[in-house]
Amino acid sequence: MTESSFSARLSELLRFIYPELDAHILTSQVIEAFWPEEKHRRKQPRKPGNNLWTQNDAVLITYGDSLIDGFHKPLDLMHDFLLTHMKGVVNGVHILPFFPFTSDDGFAVTDYRKVNPQLGEWSDITRISSEFHLMSDLVLNHVSSQGVWFNAYRQGQAPYDKFFFEADPSDDVSMVVRPRTTPLLQEVETAMGTRYVWCTFSHDQIDLDFRNPEVLLEIIRIIRLHIDMGVRIIRLDAVAFLWKQLGTNCIHLPQTHAVIQLMRLLMDYTTETVILLTETNVPKAENLSYFGRRNEAHVVYNFPLPPLILHAMMSGSAKYLIDWQRTMPPAPLGCAYLNFTASHDGIGMRPAEGLLPPPEIGQVIDTIREIGGLVSMRSLPGGGEAPYELNCSYFEAMGRTFQGADDHHFARFLCSQTIMMSLEGIPAFYIHSMLATPNDLEAVERRGMNRAINRHRWNYPELQERLADPESLHARVLAALSERLKLRAEQPGFHPNATQFTLNLDQRIFGLWRQSLDRAQSIFALHNVSGETIEIPAGDLNLIADEKWVDLLSGEEVTAGAVEMAPYQCRWITNLV
């Protein structure tokens, strides 16, 4: 794509998004917003390929204040934790919204250009970004009701007087897909009179109106700021809801995809290597649509994974996990999946729709409640509610099966995380999974929010003391996960785009065959999701003759005979050591 074709493609997208405006003027404005005079762009776009990531890549997900001590800046403590415990284990870190905010633990932003002073400052962010691949949140669907932009809107100040999506109470919004049960519209008094603003998530999170190109231009300027501060992975938060159009479901609209394509086009021409990640907690086909035709997100979350692994470990059967994985396409060239089991949010249940039968989902919900977890609901179009997410520490969620509690808690959790490490894609670990943090029910009661159950703030000196004791549960989990991640990073067969084939084995075994891009290494990744000892017949694994096969996790040589799997045991059997 030449310089002229870059401008032509940018104009084409802008003409589609804003058909009534001058696309040439908008093109110049977008270029100026993203590449101010002192900035330069590539002459040729970055071509799709498998070189944006390797098997060395893994991400830690954390809040900026997941570690506190009452004296130091939380970002200082996080920096110390990353250097002390995560160096060589992960090379990326997703610091959840680190901006000033009013609610939703950072996702109601008041100022996109500042670092929350309670966490630290930009120098703390750039220090981390100089040592780890830094992911930041672009909360582009909505802003805080108490932020600078919305206050200016209420006062009728240009350009913010046209920054927010308005509707009328008489409008038919029955088709609108909602992730929450709160009323969609909020009545507010402004200098222009009474207005009803759109609130997809909460009344403190007012939706922006991307029909106004000034909104898009300001978001592009913010992306440029983040890149200049060292951000290399930009997470497009709640992006599926970006474009609204009355009479539709207001999710996944064509203009939303066009805006992402525009952002991808800009990233393809940045001198910095920047990856776009879309956060779309929706069923599979809708989620995969955000790869576009290799022209939207570089990476999408593998959202079905958390509930499907949870069900497999609780039920002792990988049937539904296997059925789903068999139908999953490899990521397109230049794209990858982000695999995870836990995040700052709950375990999303929408991606399980159509994959887990309702009775199975019911059993999972019942078991989570027995553990002390919670269930959050969403509104259905036309009325009614359905489970939206399960709120529970993933480590705690592994403490019980459908049959009840047992002595396999640690092994079951380690198995769940090893499955995630073995799959095609880039693994991401929530800090509270790495630390085996229990449910924080006190925080739920104190904050009145279900998600607080999995957003514990560790007292850093106390955590350090526990991690210093090798017999503590926290130290054991961190050590086990770290060891496997370091081992994984040495295996070309675990490249995010390495060949993957789902094995046809006993349904209690989730088995994958991975093969490196150069075909030199094969790995048979086997995971027993049950509490029973299982023997895999020799003929079920295609162990090539005249090769030496070794289980990387146990160190033992594997012969051509049957392979035994202890309860919740995992094996990485490879021909290349």
UniProtKB/TrEMBL annotation:
Pfam families recorded: Alpha-amylase
First-level EC class: transferase
GO MF terms held by the record: sucrose phosphorylase activity
InterPro entries registered for this protein in UniProt: GGa_phosphorylase (IPR033746), GH (IPR017853), GH13_cat_dom (IPR006047), Glyco_hydro_b (IPR013780), O16G_dom_2 (IPR045857), Sucrose_GGa_phosphorylase-rel (IPR016377)
Residues bound to substrate: 104, 142, 235-237, 344-345, 451
Keyword entries, A-Z: Glycosyltransferase, Transferase
Glycosyl hydrolase family 13 catalytic domain location: 65-378
Keyword Glycosyltransferase listed: yes
Example of a GO biological process term: carbohydrate metabolic process
UniProt EC number: 2.4.1.7
Annotated coiled-coil segments of the chain: none
Protein name: Sucrose phosphorylase
Native organism: Salipiger abyssi
